[in-house]
Write a structure and sequence with these properties.
The complex is a heterodimer of chains A (244) and B (242).
Chain A: H1 2-24, H2 34-43, H3 45-79, H4 81-96, H5 99-110, H6 114-138, H7 142-150, H8 155-192, H9 198-207, H10 211-235
Helix pairs in contact in A: 2-10, 3-4, 3-6, 3-8, 3-9, 5-6, 5-8, 6-8, 8-9, 8-10, 9-10
Chain B: E1 7-15, E2 18-28, E3 33-37, H1 44-52, E4 59-66, E5 76-79, H2 91-95, H3 97-102, H4 108-117, H5 133-147, E6 151-155, H6 163-176, E7 181-186, H7 189-195, E8 198-203, E9 206-210, H8 224-241
Parallel strand pairs in B: 3-7, 3-8, 5-6, 6-7
Antiparallel strand pairs in B: 1-2, 1-4, 8-9
Classes of the chains: A mainly alpha (244), B alpha/beta (242).
Chain lengths: 244, 242
Amino acid sequence: MKYLSALAATLFALGVWQAIVSLTGLPKFILPGPALVVETWWQNRWLIAEHTWITAVEVLIGLACGTFLGVITALQLANSRAARVLVQPMLVFTQALPVFALAPLLTLWLGYGLWSKVAMAVLIIYFPITSSFFDGLMRTPTGYLDLARTMQASSRSVLWHIRIPAALPSLASGMRLAAVYAPIGAVIGEWVGSSQGLGYLMLLANGRAKTDLMFAAMLTLGVFSIVLHILVRHATARMAGEAH
Amino acid sequence: MTPAPDLIFEGQASIGSASLFAPLSLSLASGQWTCLLGGSGVGKTTVLRLIAGLDTGADFSGQIAASDGKPVAERVAYMAQNDLLLPWATVAQNVSLGARLRGEKIDRNRRDRLIARMRLTDHMNKKPAELSGGQRQRVALARTLMEDRPIVLLDEPFSALDARTRADMQDLAAEALQGRTVLLVTHDPAEAARLGQTIVVMTQHGLTHCQPPPAPAPRKVDDLETLETQGSLLRLLREEAA
């Protein structure tokens, strides 16, 4: 049923797209139709695959690093009032900065290659991961804490046996958000400066009025994000306390 | 387990300038069930939480002491209305939570015996969500017994159960907690009449000691004197509220 409705929605969107192209008669360098985009995609499948691989590596490394850093930060924040006072405002401040503005700086610092894009992905997912896990850690049901207290548990073991497991569903929702955001980060990084990746391919195709190739790259990115989101959703189902 | 001591609670509590309860003096006889009966908001849960050493948000002045002079809060086991079972842990893991939290070695034999005594052996490896309300409360009771503390504090642990399950749990708890100093906080006169070896009614005006029925606790649900006590307790609660 779920797959059927997804299929129906896709077909509907393609239909609307084709209808707009047919009705308006727009030239194909302004708005290529779905059939042309699919054809271009197939002709350039190896090129697209190569660039998708680059973006995928950036995104996956970014996800792993961002999750790791976010989890560590949330644990520190939950554990220490001083950390909350010092770090929390900074965390919000970094979110107020437009990541687009930071991208050139990261390219300057980390170079043209992989790591400036990883850094962008990390930057964009760090906050959702940290803040969702931190919220979870601070919202442990008080009854559990009371019980642990009467059992003479140390705060360290309460953290390990109660607060962290109770916060895993929150971390799972943060990671699911991150899976959607991370590709955006990597692509922004590629736009600012790169010689490979889907973002680079999009800019390249756009600059040469190969709008059909740009659409093909963009749709590939969309599909990649959806697949990543589904994979992360499955990977975190246990954490979120959902039955398989 | 050290032998169950008498427990003395004396003092008053306030939040800011508002008094939560006036000076009162409650003594819990060693190895006996004391039922503290009262309506909502009279502060009976606060009394229990103070004994357990838990946060109450109130300023307490007074003393809480055991007859053997040893500290109280570290010798209590605590059971609440909510079973407080960790949803991600199995029945067996929940029962042995205390040892895991303290980093002690788990006495598996004892754990399994207690689980068997609560008729939960078939459910050992299940998660709490797979159990009924009564089964969950039996797990909580097994967890309380696993702690093996001389003082047991029960904060309306049976009030969310249906009437039959509640009566079963009362029997089971009365039998399992024998010999310990038990404080049962409840708003149910029937529960106090069935289980109390000492029955104390708490209202805004203070504590009133009531005569428990003569039969040994747990009393039969249809014991006439128990029903009579239940009636007079309810009357007292209503009069005091008026």
